[in-house]
Amino acid sequence: MGAKAYSWQALRWFAATASAALATFLMVWLGANSTTAGMVFLVLVVWWAAQTGIVLSIYIATLCAICFDFYFLPPVRTFRIEGPQAWVAMVSFALSCVVVSRLSERARQQARQAEQRQADVERLYALSQEMMLFEDAERLLHDLPGAIGRIFALQGVVLYVSDYDRFYSSTSEVAASVKAHMQAVTLGMSPTVSLFGGYQTAALMLGLKPVGALSWQPDTLSHEVAAAVRAQVSIAVARSIAMETTARIEAAREGERLRTALIDSLTHELRTPLTSIRAAATSLLETQGLDEAGRLEMARIIDEEAARLDMLVGESVEMAEIDANVVQVKMSQQHPRALLDQAVEESRKILAAHKVTIAVDGADDSGQGKPAWFDPHLLGRVLRHLLENVAGHTPQGSRVTLSSRRTDDRLEFCVEDNGPGIDARDMPLIFEKFYRGKQSASMRKGSGMGLAITRAILAAHGGGIEVSNIPGSGARFRFWVPLIEKEPSRQ
């Protein structure tokens, strides 16, 4: 690249010399007078001054002045100048060349400065646009140094945010001394703008309050651009802090709303079975002459409502464990068929009036299929919640099909029924806490937590769940976990 630039520069000097020589030859050959020659030389100097730098323009002006004196001012073909007219012509020509050269150089500098300012404005605008795209506070601060380095062609950019006491860098590693210097600049223990460790470091101010520091290398940003970048970064830091504060407030508000909803839901749900149990117990204690069938009916009511009460308490405890992030995945090698059989066996009471079938894709002669590593306790809970949901929302005699299959990286399970399906209005909210579908009023009531629990359990297991309606009739719940065929500790 240096050799090419040198060759191009040499070519321009040769072209300037050749143009002056050619102009001189043509005017001598045509017999031009001194006035015509002066005008031609002046035009030549103006053109070269507009195209090149100050050094080359002074060179061509000097060369033209020499040719003008030697060939066109009397006595010609000598460097002597005789008479006031010749001196005036020579001095006027020389001054005109110098003034034109300086004016052209100044115009070029102003044009370069205008282009630089335009480029700076465009880069600052691009930076502001990038900062506006982020809606996550942590992501904004994490990606901001890289965006600054990319837009302003910097090798390294480091951002320090004092509120978080955290560093964000566009490079993989930053020297500890640079980090310490940035903290000192933020605390006012070092100059607000200083060069240290190859990085130019400046404090980030929001009003009179320091919110951090910004360092960059190399130090190629002008003072004005650096100040504008610092101002934008300070605003971005303040926006990030505000976003995080708002998120915390919203989370606290949502937590309070959920706690209130949980208390209201549990109060309502627990009161219903308790009322039934008390009424049945009162009938047993106070009713005289109650026959055996009546006593058995009262005992059955107490048993059913106590079981429902136990289920509600269990689901509440389960949801509390999930919210507290205490769910642990304990892998063991299991057959998917055994998991499905166990879930059906544990749900036989609620599925007594339904027709249940099990299908395992790729099963061998024993019907088991290949084993895989998963948590049978957690997936068993998922299946039981889904079966309870199916039993509570499908009429008696409905068909329920449980199946499992393998894909390249998943172990999938399906629970299907041929009931009325799920209302389209319920689809987006069906896995939310305490949500009950539009059809629940005529079906068996639940707590509204079962499907939310299944989604949370599967998320802890690294899987997911989705629901869809089967064309014709019925609903399909499909969930999956990662397919692990070797013991996790040995992979």
Automatic annotation (TrEMBL):
PANTHER family: SENSOR PROTEIN KDPD
Taxonomy, superkingdom: Bacteria
Segments traversing the membrane: 12-32, 39-72
Lineage of producing organism: Bacteria, Pseudomonadati, Acidobacteriota, Terriglobia, Terriglobales
Alphabetic keyword roster: ATP-binding, Kinase, Membrane, Nucleotide-binding, Phosphoprotein, Transferase, Transmembrane, Transmembrane helix, Two-component regulatory system
Domain Histidine kinase: 265-485
Pfam families recorded: DUF4118 (PF13493), HATPase_c (PF02518), HisKA (PF00512)
Source organism of this protein record: Candidatus Sulfuritelmatomonas gaucii
GO terms of molecular function: ATP binding; phosphorelay sensor kinase activity
EC number: 2.7.13.3
SMART domains: HATPase_c, HisKA
Localization per Swiss-Prot or TrEMBL: Membrane
Catalytic reaction(s) noted: ATP + protein L-histidine = ADP + protein N-phospho-L-histidine
Name this protein carries in UniProt: histidine kinase
GO cellular component, one term: plasma membrane
Membrane-topology annotation of the record: Multi-pass membrane protein
